[in-house]
Amino acid sequence: MQGYTAEERAALVAACTAAAAHRRDHHHAAAVTCHPHAVEVVHLGHRAVMVCHDCESDSGFLPERAAEAVAHDHRIQTSSEAGSRLGPAA
User: Fold this and answer.
1) Which of 18, 34, 45, 59 is deepest in the core (most CB within 10 A)?
2) pLDDT of 15-51, one tens digit each?
């Protein structure tokens, strides 16, 4: 990764990590989703991203404990039929 600053290299690694996690998204027939949603927390150094494989959305990179908390909350929110989308994938 020559020609990139340390910050640009870190951003590229983070983007590739999030993209790899999203490639594991699973799809259901019609509008059926898991309850609770299939959620994964992917750690990268002291940061982590919570990826919802049902919403196909993520939290963006957060401090590790914050990403774990978002994952826990999303599982709780989606444990019933009234699911909650986090936002667009990064």
Assistant:
1) 59
2) 888 887 777 766 666 666 678 888 889 998 899 999 9
Residue 35 neighbours by CB under 8 Å, 6+ apart: 78, 79, 80, 81, 83
83 pLDDT tier (thresholds 50, 70, 90): very low
- Quote the CA–CA distance of 16 and 56 in Å, as a whole number: 16
- Tell me which of 71 and 38 has the higher pLDDT: 71
From CA 77, how far away is CA 37, in angstroms rounded?
A: 9
Question: With left for phi above 0 and alpha for psi between -120 and 50, is residue 56 left, alpha or beta?
Answer: left
Q: Output the six-digit token pair for 80.
A: 């019933």
pTM more than 0.70 = no
Q: What's the one-letter identity of residue 78?
A: T
Radius of gyration of the chain (CA): 14
